[in-house]
Each structure stands twice: as C-alpha cells, then as structure tokens.
Design goal:
4 helices; mainly alpha; about 90 residues; about 75% helix; two-stranded antiparallel sheet
Length: about 90
C-alpha cells in the first residue's frame, strides 16, 4: 500500500497527510474539476469544500485502518460513505 511505503520512509503523520492529499486529489474529479466543450472548468468554492471533506474522510479511513490493523473496516466505511452519498444525490436530483 502507498500509505505503508510512505510511513516506512517518513512517519505515520506524514504518510496520512500525503495519503489524504492523494485521495482528495483523485476524488476532486468527482466534483470541482469539470471538462466541457470549452476545456476544463474549475469550481473553486465548492471544489475546495469537497477537497477538504475528502481530506477529512481520508484521515478517518486512515485512523480506522491504523486502529483496527486491517484495511477491511476502512473499505466498508468507504463503501457506506459512497452509498449514502449516492442515495442523497439521487434523492435531491429526482
């Protein structure tokens, strides 16, 4: 895992920060960075809020993995988060 490799080189805190930044950067493609006919569009305010929320989620998932010494509780927590987010989005879109 990326987190483990970074932790082996530096420490737990730096590994969590780098992991959270990477997680948030990847997930910004869901909201905050759009591609349309004119090229890329950046949603600065809502994208920044989404990025921060993803950083917090990633930190929670990292803590879950660290405390349980297993990746599976974090995987199921991530699955539950995604499920609730999708249900909420579809309820508001319908």
């Amino acid at each position: 895992m990326i987190h483990e490799a970074i932790r082996a080189r530096w420490n737990e805190r730096k590994a969590t920060v780098v992991n959270s930044l990477a997680f948030s950067g990847i997930h910004i493609l869901h909201h905050g960075l759009l591609l349309n006919e004119g090229g890329f569009q950046v949603l600065w305010v809502s994208g920044s809020i989404f990025f921060l929320l993803m950083m917090i989620l990633s930190w929670i998932l990292s803590e879950c993995r660290k405390r349980t010494e297993s990746i599976w509780p974090a995987v199921f927590l991530h699955l539950g988060f995604n499920l609730m987010m999708n249900i909420t989005l579809f309820v508001f879109l319908l």
